[in-house]
Each structure stands twice: as structure tokens, then as C-alpha cells.
Write a structure and sequence with these properties.
about 190 residues, about 15% strand, two-stranded antiparallel ribbon, single chain, Glutaredoxin, alpha/beta
Amino acid sequence: MSGGPVRRALAAAAALALFAGCSGGADDGAGDPGGAAGPEPSWSVACEAATTPVEPVGELELPCLGDGAPTAFGVTDGRPLVVVLWASWCGPCIEEAPEVEAFWQAHGDQVDVVGVDSADVRDKGRWFAEDFELSYPSVFDADEAVRIALGVPALPGVAFVAPDGTVADVVNEPGVTAGSLTAAAEAAFGLELS
């Protein structure tokens, strides 16, 4: 069969590239839009310190991605919380970013959203947030403490956290949309989001 080994090699290379999309981690910082010596991203959304920790995570302080300020991670002021685990190097996270932002824009008056930039380089995460014009806060979790504590095997992932800090649901399948986030949040929190 002509070209068989070449086709198999190309198919194997494509499969490896796809698998590496969200199972890898951050690199040395090369390839960010500003370059190694280029300008820093200007994105900066302040984080609000939590008042109730997320049960499987416990008391955890992470730097705010926007300004680097140490931030207690968890529920704030008894509002339901949607935790979005993402990274700049994660292919499905790129597709989901506008959907999560649309969900936040539509329902941020009823639920909180916090992003967790996981296993990334901080400036790459800030470039990602800037490129997608994310308006919800994110924390920086280089060691993936949140992902591991929530039992999410790989990025992306979304956890729905009740006001008392208990996890009501976890979604660990790529392809979330604003609509699927709305439906999952309504089911997890017993709310009707408008």
C-alpha cells in the first residue's frame, strides 16, 4: 500500500499534538505576544478575598492573576461560585473562554465566577485574559492545587460551588457553552438564572 507508513506517522503525530494540547504545562515563557523582552500585558481584574473556603480545597491563598495580590480562594459573601480551571496553553480553554465570559456577563449579578489559571506562566495567563477580554477575576495556581483538590484530571474543568463551600457539581468535558454553563449552574444551585 503506497504511503501507508507515512500516513500512519502523520496520524500518530497529529494524535500526539492533540493530546499535548491540554495535558502539558507551561513552558519557559517564550512565544508570548510581547516576546521575552516585550511589554507586559495590561489586563488586570482585581480579586476579592473569599469568606468561605471550598471544602475539598480548604484554606488556600493564591496570587490574583490581575495584580498579584495574595487572595483567599473560595466563596465570597455567600454567593454561588463557578470555578473555571484554564490555562493559556490549553486548546479547549481557548474555545471556551468567550463562552465563560458570556455566561459571566449574563449572570454575574446572581453568581460569582473565578478563573484559576493552572500550571501556566503568569504573564501568558494575563495575555490570554487580555486577548479574550475576560472581565471576571482569576487567580494564578502554578502548582494546580485547586485542580488536584477538586479531582479534575485535566484542563479544562468547571466546578459549581454552593454558598456553604461544598462542591455541587464538576464538569470536566471540553466544549462548555454559555448555555450549558447556565443549565449546569441552575441545576447545581437550584436557581433560575435570568
